[in-house]
Amino acid sequence: MPETADQPPIAPDHAGDHAPAHTPQDHAEVYSFLGPSGTFTEAALAQVPQAKGKHWRSVNNVGEALGDVVAGRSVAAMIAIENSIEGGVSVAQDALATIPDLRIVGEYLVPVNFVLVARPGTRLSDVKVINAHPVAYAQCHLWLDANLPAHGHLPSSSNVAAAASLLDGSPADAAIAPPGIIDHHDLEVLAENIGDNPNAVTRFVLVSRGTAIPAPTGADKTSIIAELPDDRPGSLLDLLEQFSTRGVNLSLIESRPIGDSLGRYRFVIDADGHISDERVADALLGLRRFSPAVIFLGSYPRADGRHVDYDHRYRDEVFTEAREWLKGLTAPPGE
């Protein structure tokens, strides 16, 4: 997965870990990411100013990354949460719903493109089995169906791992990988730009256990997970009205099964705005009264920096004035 211009060079440290070559010996601050070196997740981590010069720990999956945070092995973990083609990353959403006390403290966008690589001397006509991460494989199916209609798919934990395995006895003939893979491994590119959508972007979030919420910037997002109280007509509408009646726009809403019985769902929600915004805070209060379980995942700056636009009928002063008005109605005479 691709290197970026501002990404520090990565050098092996101890087993399973990677760190910037200029990292000091003191590894007090560790950041976990889906490895090995060269993944899109590493490219997202390279965008985090506070991670520069720190120790970067390469892990195999989302569970291991968040496990590092929970166990205190890492101060934060970078995980993929949403793709512009495939939608939400369900394994990440479910992990955030079930592992307590995690907070999203930032989001980062990484453009996604792919190449098909193979061992030196391999021709495209020789390819029968392709190793790739399932999400990347799904984003290249149009090209694969057109050029390799009879191929088989061997799933991998990451596309960099898929490419590296070609040199380590993999039964696959080729692998889907990021364009910079040949800088890391002795492989040949059989085809470039094989992704179905040249504008594909993956959204990553930095997750920690800290309770400090980043200060509002005016271009913020608030992420929560909420359950419906019961399975009845209009229940989802009741949930959505907690936001619409306060003028809060939702940029993401996805359902995930709770798993205890059929028909029981939780909803992963991204709301435009910061928890310190009166309209957002009031919506969360309404949601908390309505839902049997609400998980606050965090308020943090939007990766695109786009200022949140909203109807000024829902500006902070409207909410504070309404509270003062209500307080005045119940105040004793003369106060």
Automatic annotation (TrEMBL):
<protein>
    <recommendedName>
        <fullName>Prephenate dehydratase</fullName>
        <ecNumber>4.2.1.51</ecNumber>
    </recommendedName>
</protein>
<dbReference type="GO" id="GO:0004664">
    <property type="term" value="F:prephenate dehydratase activity"/>
</dbReference>
<keyword id="KW-0028">Amino-acid biosynthesis</keyword>
<comment type="pathway">
    <text>Amino-acid biosynthesis; L-phenylalanine biosynthesis; phenylpyruvate from prephenate: step 1/1.</text>
</comment>
<dbReference type="InterPro" id="IPR045865">
    <property type="entry name" value="ACT-like_dom_sf"/>
</dbReference>
<feature type="domain" description="ACT">
    <location>
        <begin position="224"/>
        <end position="302"/>
    </location>
</feature>
<feature type="domain" description="Prephenate dehydratase">
    <location>
        <begin position="30"/>
        <end position="209"/>
    </location>
</feature>
<keyword id="KW-0057">Aromatic amino acid biosynthesis</keyword>
<keyword id="KW-0584">Phenylalanine biosynthesis</keyword>
<feature type="site" description="Essential for prephenate dehydratase activity">
    <location>
        <position position="202"/>
    </location>
</feature>
<dbReference type="Pfam" id="PF01842">
    <property type="entry name" value="ACT"/>
</dbReference>
<dbReference type="InterPro" id="IPR001086">
    <property type="entry name" value="Preph_deHydtase"/>
</dbReference>
<dbReference type="GO" id="GO:0009094">
    <property type="term" value="P:L-phenylalanine biosynthetic process"/>
</dbReference>
<feature type="compositionally biased region" description="Basic and acidic residues">
    <location>
        <begin position="14"/>
        <end position="23"/>
    </location>
</feature>
<dbReference type="Pfam" id="PF00800">
    <property type="entry name" value="PDT"/>
</dbReference>
<dbReference type="InterPro" id="IPR002912">
    <property type="entry name" value="ACT_dom"/>
</dbReference>
<dbReference type="GO" id="GO:0005737">
    <property type="term" value="C:cytoplasm"/>
</dbReference>
<keyword id="KW-0456">Lyase</keyword>
<feature type="region of interest" description="Disordered">
    <location>
        <begin position="1"/>
        <end position="23"/>
    </location>
</feature>
<dbReference type="InterPro" id="IPR008242">
    <property type="entry name" value="Chor_mutase/pphenate_deHydtase"/>
</dbReference>
